[in-house]
Task: inverse folding
């Protein structure tokens, strides 16, 4: 089984051009399934529909969320489809199984006033403050994922034309930079980053005080620090800035397809979750604008 798992992971890495995070998710799911198969002395090449259903029930029993079980099923299904194409199995035992219903969570967002307050916190009077201001402005201006932001290299920036190229899983998208974000980014690139980096060969856009590429944890701590400085009571993670970016664009008239492109969503249904906030915005506009409201 180990040999087939490795072959499968290699296949999806090369064929689907997935991001490292997605590949790691597939690996975790398949390894968990392998452990279950071994513990229950099953032959993975002859697993029945019923035995596969028992596996999903087991995941629920050990407290896995519906979203995790659904992802596990999708990963395992991909694995068996791979085995089927390579004639290792005669049928896919996941074929008739349905994913558990997953409720889409309402994303947490900041109001425009809260965003303004958060972005005012970093003071561009020292190297770290200049970097932090550029980074928070950039995160809100682009709506990029944390992994995408910390993975950026200098050549991905086009400061002259005012956009950034985001490369994820073999795909790329160009995202425009607003005037304020561009100003803060230029200040950082010109006056802070050259002093922070210890090695001129360092390609990372955002670096820590040791001159190395900033980590996900480092980014999260910076956001948390300024959230506390701003006395904002909501939980704020870097992903909240992404949600806020999408919601504020939609509320101010951007079309859903453009937002989908900027966010890098492969399926527009992932972007449609922000429509609920637009509905509230429209209600407020109606109340204030309609003479009979």
Result:
């Amino acid at each position: 089984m180990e040999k087939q798992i490795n072959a499968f992971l290699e296949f999806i890495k090369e064929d689907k051009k997935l991001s490292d995070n997605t590949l790691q998710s597939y690996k975790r799911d398949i390894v968990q399934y392998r452990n279950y198969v071994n513990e229950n002395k099953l032959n993975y090449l002859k697993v029945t529909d019923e035995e596969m259903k028992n596996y999903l029930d087991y995941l629920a029993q050990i407290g896995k969320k519906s979203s995790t079980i659904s992802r596990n099923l999708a990963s395992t299904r991909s694995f068996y489809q791979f085995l089927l194409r390579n004639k290792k199995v005669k049928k896919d035992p996941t074929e008739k199984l349905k994913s558990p219903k997953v409720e889409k969570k309402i994303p947490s967002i900041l109001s425009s006033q809260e965003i303004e307050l958060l972005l005012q916190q970093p003071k561009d009077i020292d190297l770290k403050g200049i970097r932090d201001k550029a980074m928070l402005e950039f995160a809100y201006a682009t709506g990029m994922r944390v992994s995408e932001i910390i993975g950026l290299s200098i050549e991905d920036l086009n400061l002259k034309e005012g956009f950034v190229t985001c490369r994820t899983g073999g795909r790329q998208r160009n995202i425009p930079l607003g005037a304020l974000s561009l100003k803060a980014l230029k200040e950082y690139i010109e006056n802070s980053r050259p002093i922070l980096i210890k090695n001129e060969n360092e390609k990372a856009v955002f670096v820590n005080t040791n001159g190395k590429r900033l980590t996900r944890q480092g980014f999260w701590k910076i956001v948390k620090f300024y959230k506390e400085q701003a006395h904002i009571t909501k939980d704020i993670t870097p992903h909240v800035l992404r949600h806020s970016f999408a919601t504020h664009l939609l509320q101010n008239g951007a079309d859903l397809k453009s937002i989908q492109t900027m966010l890098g969503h492969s399926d527009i249904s992932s972007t449609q979750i922000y429509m609920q906030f637009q509905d509230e915005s429209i209600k407020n506009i109606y109340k204030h604008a309609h003479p009979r409201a």
